[in-house]
Write a structure and sequence with these properties.
By secondary structure, this protein is α/β, with parallel strands linked by helices. The chain has a single domain, classed as Rossmann fold (3-Layer(aba) Sandwich), CATH 3.40.50.300. 35% of the residues lie in helices and 22% in strands. The protein contains twelve helices and twelve strands. The strands form two sheets. Strands 6-7-8-3-9-10-12-11 form an eight-stranded mixed β-sheet, with helices on both faces. β1 and β2 form a beta hairpin.
Length: 330
């Protein structure tokens, strides 16, 4: 019986729920200049899988998330959800799809209406999609509040300013889950929380994933957090995906120099005298408005050669399904 369950889980993860192909997003700077926040990024997420998306601040992680849920205009590319290109869907079709793709934001407090009681905030998505029966909406709201660890009798009538950051993140999670989505996008949901509260929210996300059979895109700059929650990890640098691999493989043996240096920069809890780590970053992050030619990481890469300056590397597949965009993979 256990073997059959394992085979079923593997099959589900091989079935793609979301595919982002060659996504490009631009922002204007003044009247004439433009910046490519995302430059031809591609990734996919299997049914029931958690894909971690990591990278330095400003690399385009949140822009990808906002593009998927329709909050950001896309210049070109394809976003395929359950076989349908979201960028080509009609408004009527998108109205049916949107409840299936929900997002929780980094600043949970700011994402809530300060003048609305949290019970009403959690219930609001049901009203928007047309649940007319107030009693049914109230029942579903109480049910989902209990699921995320909030007492509906005591907390439904309170306002956001009466809650801690961790409690507000639970409210945001309840608001996202009340529509029973298939895909949940988490945009740095624990980065502003204390370490102990982070662990509680991460455990809650894992429980909710199993309970509601969720597929998740988990965005963070904290590599230790991503390692513990993700099945696979995609590494992003300056608008480009530079490596994708299973969590275990990526942390054990990264193929892209940027991934290796990113892992080497993670602080280790050790009171003994420390030796300087091999491989450290040098140079500043280039401006996204004027990205370097060739490989965008070559200005900081210790292994850069002439070809890295001249030719942009493609995201190539290696054994085991992992991918890396590097002329000289490790």
């Amino acid at each position: 019986m256990l073997v059959s369950i394992g085979k079923r889980e593997k099959r589900l993860k091989n079935e793609k729920l979301l595919t982002v192909n060659d996504l490009t997003v631009e922002f204007r700077i003044g009247r004439r200049r433009k910046i490519e926040a995302v430059a031809g990024a591609s990734l996919d997420i299997g049914v029931g899988e958690t894909l971690g998306l990591v990278g330095e601040s400003g690399c385009g992680k949140s822009t990808i998330a906002r593009s998927i849920v329709g909050l950001q205009k896309v210049k070109k590319g394809r976003i395929i959800y359950s076989g349908q290109d979201l960028l080509q869907c009609t408004k009527q079709r998108m109205k049916k799809i949107r409840p299936q793709v929900q997002m929780i934001f980094q600043d949970a407090v700011a994402s809530l209406n300060p003048g609305r009681k949290i019970g009403k905030s959690i219930e609001e998505p049901l009203r928007v999609i047309g649940w007319a029966d107030r009693q049914e909406r109230g029942h579903r709201t109480h049910e989902i509040m209990k699921a995320v660890g909030l007492d509906p009798e005591q907390m439904a009538s309170r306002y956001p300013h009466e809650f801690s950051g961790g409690q507000c993140q639970r409210v945001s999670l309840a608001r996202a889950l009340i529509l029973r989505p298939r895909l949940l996008i988490c945009d740095e949901p624990v980065s502003s929380l204390d370490v102990s509260i982070q662990a509680q929210i991460l455990n809650l996300l894992e429980n909710m994933k199993r309970r509601f059979e969720l597929t998740m895109l988990f965005i963070s700059h904290d590599l230790s957090v991503v390692k513990n929650i993700s099945d696979r990890v995609a590494v992003m640098y300056l608008g480009k995906i530079c490596e994708i691999a299973s969590s275990e493989e990526l942390y054990r043996s990264p193929r892209h120099p940027y991934t290796a240096l990113l892992l080497a920069s993670v602080p280790e809890p050790d009171t003994a005298p420390k030796k300087q780590k091999k491989g450290t970053f040098h140079g500043e992050i280039p401006s996204p408005a004027e990205p370097p030619p060739g490989c965008r990481f070559h200005t900081r890469c210790p292994n850069a050669k002439d070809i890295c300056i001249e030719v942009e590397p493609e995201l190539k597949r290696f054994a085991g399904g992992r991918q890396a965009a590097c002329h000289f993979p490790l």
